[in-house]
Amino acid sequence: MATAPEEEYLQQLRSRATELFIREEWNHSIEAYSQFITLCTHHLSLPQSHSSSLKLRKSLCIALCNRAEAKSRLREFNSALQDCDDALQVDGSHFKTLVCKGKILLSLSRYSTALHCFKMALLDPQANGNDDFLGFWQKCRKFESLSRTGFLDLSDWVSNGFPGKAPELAEYIGDVQIRKSEISGRGVFVTKDIDAGSLILITKAIAMERSLLAGKDLCEDTQLVMWKNFVDKVIELVRKCHKTRDLIEKLSIGGKEDELDVPDVDLFRPESIGEMNSREEIDMVKLLAILDVNSLTEEAVSANVLRKNNDCYGVGLWLLPSFINHSCSPNVRRLHVGDYLIVHASRDLKADEELTFAYYDPLCPLSKRRDMSVTWGIQCRCKRCKFEVDILYYKKELKEIEIGIEKGMDVGSLVYKLEEQMKRWKIRAKEKGYMRASFWSLYSETYGSEKCMKKWGRRIPILDAVVDSVTDAVGSDHRVLKILNEEMKKKASGSSGDGNLEMEKVFRLAREVYGKVMKKHAMRKLLELCNAD
Ligand SMILES: C[S@@+](CC[C@H](N)C(=O)[O-])C[C@H]1O[C@@H](n2cnc3c(N)ncnc32)[C@H](O)[C@@H]1O
Predict the structure, then answer these.
(1) Which segments constitute the SET domain (predicted)?
(2) Residue 110 CB neighbour total at 10 angstroms
């Protein structure tokens, strides 16, 4: 039993902690609550009357709950969750603790466990008319459903011109597995047939850094500062969160990847608790190598960023997408919405097919792609590269076309020459797509110029056929979409052809570029933006 002075001291500690908590001095309030909790627990271990034990237990529960709230404000989520669980041990239906735990779990994207907490809190009469709580409850229901079903619709936000902040999304992992890859190390594979445009992953960056673009490019100093800030954010996070750190350590450092373990995709689900076994200091050299190999920038050929102004540039790390290998004939694209990366199929995929991004521009000749692959430290051996290596070795005419481009020769004549050569060499449809993708700059300039089309239009294939073969070979691309869209507009103004059918084709291509996350009115908005690019 506590003496009167002891009780008074306990009372003082509690008042002090509460005051600091109200003043939002989180660190100090955590300290004060910790003292109170230790003392209170001690008193509870002594013989007590029933009523004072009840009083002490009530105070202990509130103190643990408030300390959890303070810790969560400092993003110390694991420790905050422990406090919530301790508080719920004292009172399993404590409303504030259930709400606090639900909010923390929601921040950690552990939607179904969060939903369970909110459901329990809903039984308390305090839930009625509590707008703050009801807001979290609605949000949690929405996210839990999105992360289970993958049903995402950004149409309103897009067609209203991206108002306010980017929408918050839920993480989602579709029908995929991580397996050994024939390309290199591990890769991500689909386990079911998936059609073009379908959503495959929504992943939140574990850390992101953005910088304003001065002019079109980022100067080297800004890039360095940005990279340093990004690395600092990752280091801070791995120090705080062991699960994130364990997952980062599974990523490649490049080079020889044959011996790497193949992690279970379930480890990357937000609900997974993690192994919690690595508590040694972080190996900084390894961490930097991992960031070097796996970080992605928003500005990339296989990415589109949805936001109002494209005057900033971001770098981030998204864990599961880091297992996606490169191909010059890729089958997925990514869409950036705030800190979320959305991966969707850019063409129809068969079960067991490996997902591949283009790390660098697939719409350029082999020689340029080889140069870019050196920067990435890889040597691509995809079907397209193998085919082009063979053909370039034997056919000097292709070299002549490349030289023609450098010399600024008439682009239409070069397209004509390439098409004639491909007929002579009896190149099959798929491979024609590879070659046309490699010389896309020639095709786009030719089809985009009235003068060129007057001269060469009758002697080269129609744009439709070229678009079909290029997208079949390398998946859809916004530059291809742009040319096709412009052509359709011209045709519509001249009212030749079947406008509906042609517009349907533009929408199909747009779904392959942006994903099916949009309804037609939003797609129209994206097509406008694509044209203005
Ligand atoms: C983002 S990781 C991709 C996943 C990686 N394969 C793994 O096992 O973790 C990038 C690294 O994968 C390898 N890689 C990706 N695409 C490749 C390709 N087409 N050819 C050779 N290596 C590739 C390279 O080592 C590259 O540094």
Answers:
(1) 174-360
(2) 24
Sequence length of the chain is 533
**Domain check: are 452 and 321 in the same one?**
no
Identify the CATH number of the domain in which residue 314 sits: 2.170.270.10
From CA 367, how far away is CA 364, in angstroms rounded? 8
Q: Give SS3 for 183.
A: coil
Lining ligand 1 with CB less than 6 A are 181, 183-187, 251-252, 254, 257, 260, 293-294, 322-323, 325-327, 377-380
Query: Residue 84's closest CA among 55, 43, 120, 54?
Result: 120
Q: Quick one: which H or E segment has residue 122?
A: helix 111-122
DSSP states along 76-121 = -HHHHHHHHHHHHHH-TT-HHHHHHHHHHHHHTT-HHHHHHHHHHH
Q: How far apart are CA 74 and CA 80, in angstroms?
A: 9
pLDDT in tens, 404-426: 998 999 999 999 999 999 999 89
For residue 71, the surrounding DSSP H or E stretch is helix 50-73
Q: Which residues lie below 8 Å from residue 166, measured CB to CB, with a gap of 6+?
A: 306, 307, 337, 338, 339, 340
Assigned token pair, 332: 């997925």
Domain of 131, in residue numbers: 4-149
pLDDT tens for 240-259 read 888 889 999 999 998 889 89
Percent of the chain with pLDDT strictly greater than 90? 68
C-alpha of residue 184 to centroid of ligand 1, in Å: 5
Query: Phi, psi (5° rounding) for residue 2?
Result: -75, 145
Q: How far is the CA of 173 from the centre of ligand 1 (A)?
A: 21
Does ipTM surpass 0.85 in this model?
Answer: yes
Residue type, 354: E
Q: How far is the CA of 259 from the centre of ligand 1 (A)?
A: 13
